């Protein structure tokens, strides 16, 4: 089997999975982020995420509105380990848990939340602020219900809104993280899933709702450029032990060799001509 034929087979398999809504699929074939564009040309696009946010290049936009989240705790369904992250899934069959305001037009339905983290406390976030990379980053993913379904929304430039919250290591743990972290042992290995009812993710929000916003992409393949990013300025404080709990997850299945699930973040991408706006001075 020639390398050209193998590349073609990999590309066709990845495209098949991507069209059915599976993200991060190129990682199955051990391609690093710098190789994603070979199977997903969009990964080399001009609206890619994450980016570095530099205050000297940010535009204060006085027209930006406050954002509001209204989440129904009963919408929380399951928590899982997909080999790439820890994810909590929510019922998004109607406008039950929504994000509105800020740079958004209309409401966006909460679909899932997940985390990115590093192999140590000194890195792990995807976005970088003034040269600082935090220990982790929480993403709450919402989709625009003016489109027929989630898969339709990811094909639209205004289809997805992601609320991003940095995790900064401090001396004290964040009590609101306990509910998620106490389920880690139940989802230790790839493919594990557990019920996760009655959870309101707004308890994870920082006090300040100040934010930066820009148009970008998914940070996993196929890297569709459909996301309005709302990146909160204030991080939430977590303990080193809490970050270690996330790092105790395995990216392999139960009967496979244990391989720590760490460094699931994408390097920053060129900003090009994009404007990054701030809701604050």
TrEMBL record:
MF annotations from Gene Ontology: carbonate dehydratase activity; zinc ion binding
A GO cellular component entry from the record: cytosol
UniProt domain Alpha-carbonic anhydrase: residue ranges: 18-280
SUPFAM superfamilies found in the cross-reference section: Carbonic anhydrase
Cross-referenced InterPro entries: CA_dom (IPR001148), CA_dom_sf (IPR036398), Carbonic_anhydrase_a-class (IPR023561), Carbonic_anhydrase_a-class_CS (IPR018338)
Main location: cytoplasm
Entries under SMART domains matching the protein: Carb_anhydrase
Coiled coil start-end: none
EC number: 4.2.1.1
Main EC class the enzyme belongs to: lyase
Membership in a protein family: Belongs to the alpha-carbonic anhydrase family.
Protein name, entry field: Carbonic anhydrase
Species for this entry: Phasianus colchicus (Common pheasant)
Taxonomic lineage of the native organism: Eukaryota, Metazoa, Chordata, Craniata, Vertebrata
Gene: LOC116227581
